[in-house]
Amino acid sequence: MARPVEFDENKVLNSAMEQFWREGYEASSVQKLLDCTGINRGTLYNSFGDKDTFFKSCVDQYHKIIDKQIESSLKNPELNAWDSINAYFDEAVLNISNKHRSMGCLLVNSLCESINYDKDMKKVVRGSLATIRKAIVARLKEAQKKSKLKKGVSVEFAADVLMNTLHGVRVNSRDGKNNRQLKELIKHSINTLKK
Amino acid sequence: MARPVEFDENKVLNSAMEQFWREGYEASSVQKLLDCTGINRGTLYNSFGDKDTFFKSCVDQYHKIIDKQIESSLKNPELNAWDSINAYFDEAVLNISNKHRSMGCLLVNSLCESINYDKDMKKVVRGSLATIRKAIVARLKEAQKKSKLKKGVSVEFAADVLMNTLHGVRVNSRDGKNNRQLKELIKHSINTLKK
DNA sequence: CTTATACTTGACCCCCCATTCAATTTTACT
DNA sequence: AGTAAAATTGAATGGGGGGTCAAGTATAAG
Description:
- The structure is a homodimer.
- By secondary structure, chain A is an all-alpha fold.
- Chain A has a single domain (about 50-190), classed as Tetracycline Repressor, domain 2 (Orthogonal Bundle).
- Chain A is built from ten helices and no strands.
- The termini of chain A are far apart.
- In chain A, about 45% of the residues are buried.
- At the A-B interface, helix 1, helix 7, helix 9 and helix 10 of A face helix 1, helix 7, helix 9 and helix 10 of B.
- Chain A binds a DNA duplex through helix 3.
């Protein structure tokens, strides 16, 4: 017995997510968020809360993308450990639009912004990054069991190396590095861990 | 025949640089810059120009630090190629205060902010990063001449790997990774290139 | 001591920031 | 048709954003 919502929540979240992703938290004014989502001022506050809350929802939305990428790569049972890790980098970095690639990573960008000093935000961003690492760790354990992990390299350290490469690549993406160069960097990093 | 300046230009630039470094361009309001530098509003605009110009000067100031680090490591004639590269990472990442380390890198942070879309800013930030890479390339060429570079690895690619590791480490720094972990990541990356 | 020159100061400007809210519209149930 | 519930709307609010400027102040040259 109430008026139904007119906007598509998913579309709104995606548009806002892209805005935050491209320009960061600070530079994304509420007005810009209204413009890119097409919703009205009051609607935003009524349905999504204040800017902070909205941002967190957008990070959640971003995390959904990550989850999908993990699902079809790292958690794909048809792939062996290293193939799945390769597949993840493909999903996350290489096989995406130039537009998105040049925007880097919302999580990395947020770490590098002042919003990183907010306890809640930190928790959300770190949580999302931890999910990626966890999925990588699972596959590295598998690789280790099958003696496919380089000797003397621990699973935890290998995960750190891969995450570090991922972060570096994300920064380099924002610096305009092309796909070929990023691919080489990823390939090299993985090769240093593979047996 | 004019009144002499009262502020110490270098101190002002250092304080403002730290503010921009810690919180980024967008979150650093002019008021915050006045507070941390101790100078007056008019003085800032008279002596340093508008916020954009001031920011560029602060990046220049940051670049001076980088230059010093390069001078005592990568350009140190008493060190061989790989020792000098190790020394650079020490100077830039490991042997600095926890406070500074946790702030990451002003250049990387700027790449990840919306200011990255400003042509002038891009030029300044990229220029500074290019200086680091150039100094690394010089040493890698030396290593290659002395057959200390791993076979099949080009100087340019090795430089890309090191820069990517540096970027990754800078993001991880802002994520709170400790010195020991960063050291391991750097060591590993260098070892993959060294012969 | 006077004067030209530059630095310093903070009040002031307009604009856009995030946020609120009362009025309006749209629906579903009775 | 009437009404309760929720969504929508955009004007309004207070505050802080970046930037300006006229007045005051300190210096060195003449």
